[in-house]
């Protein structure tokens, strides 16, 4: 089962986040084989982190909750909240298989929080610009709750356009950078 977690930083937590970076990476090392995508969201100027996204394959919702809430920087108070949803990998690949590589400041996390009938269930035509793409689902995967995409785009407006605007209660666009230990 695939899950998306988005830990949003608590205001003023950057010093603690920085102090715990190695602890965070060590925790994530234990999930390396399950990772589909990971990385921080950033301020508009891409200078500071605002959150942390992890998409991974885990056995069940209980394992996903344990992953999200046992994470050491969450436990220490770095994050103000966590979005945790089932997710379906419509691309069938990981971020390490993304044809655009890991470099460039032109990547975004787009979260469409849904209402009503499901939307954007097919992979968009610009597949080579997509790092990750799929629906957000209920724990039992029977209800569509939105769509999440990580993609390469020339700016926030172009990134937002990957989703059908009038089909969502809200759409969030966050600058994003591939994560993990530096090479």
Automatic annotation (TrEMBL):
Stretches assigned to the YCII-related domain: 1-88
Pfam families from the UniProt entry: YCII
Highest taxon of the lineage: Bacteria
InterPro entries with a match to the protein in the record: Dimeric_a/b-barrel, Sec-metab_biosynth-assoc, YCII
Family statement: Belongs to the YciI family.
Identification of the protein by name: YciI family protein
Species, as recorded: Streptomyces sp. Y1
């Amino acid at each position: 089962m695939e899950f998306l977690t988005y830990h949003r930083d608590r205001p003023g937590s950057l010093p603690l986040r920085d102090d715990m970076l190695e602890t965070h990476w060590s925790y994530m090392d234990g999930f390396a084989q399950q990772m589909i995508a990971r990385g921080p969201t950033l301020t508009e100027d891409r200078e500071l982190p605002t959150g942390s996204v992890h998409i991974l394959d885990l056995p069940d919702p209980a394992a996903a909750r344990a992953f999200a809430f046992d994470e050491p920087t969450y436990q220490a108070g770095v994050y103000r909240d966590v979005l945790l949803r089932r997710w379906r990998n419509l691309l069938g690949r990981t971020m390490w298989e993304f044809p655009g590589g890991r470099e460039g400041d032109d990547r975004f996390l787009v979260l469409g929080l849904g209402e009503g009938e499901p939307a954007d269930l097919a992979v968009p035509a610009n597949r080579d610009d997509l790092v990750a793409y799929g629906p957000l689902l209920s724990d039992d995967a029977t209800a569509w709750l939105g769509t999440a995409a990580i993609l390469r785009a020339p700016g926030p407006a172009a990134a937002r356009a990957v989703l059908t605007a009038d089909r969502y209660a809200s759409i969030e666009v966050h600058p994003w950078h591939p994560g993990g230990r530096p090479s």
